[in-house]
Amino acid sequence: MTPKKVLLLHSVDGQEYVRALLYPSEWSEEDADDRAVAVFAEAQLANPDEWSWEDYEPLLESAGFEIPLWHHGPSWDAGR
Predict the structure, then answer these.
(1) What is the mean predicted confidence (pLDDT) over 44-56?
(2) Closest Cα partner for 53 from 33, 34, 73?
């Protein structure tokens, strides 16, 4: 198993959502941040007014992030 680091995503106020993503330990924190920001920018360009975590999940995974099993699936933000 490859060692992982954790990136926390959260809304600006920290009240709407907080999510954990795993990423390879070889990445720097800056690289992980840059990749996550790029995913959000790409997803928001496609549909800036209406989005859901389901829109982000495949983009985050294709960018190299891993969504922990306890966050994975259509209701990965339902447990807040």
Answers:
(1) 72
(2) 73
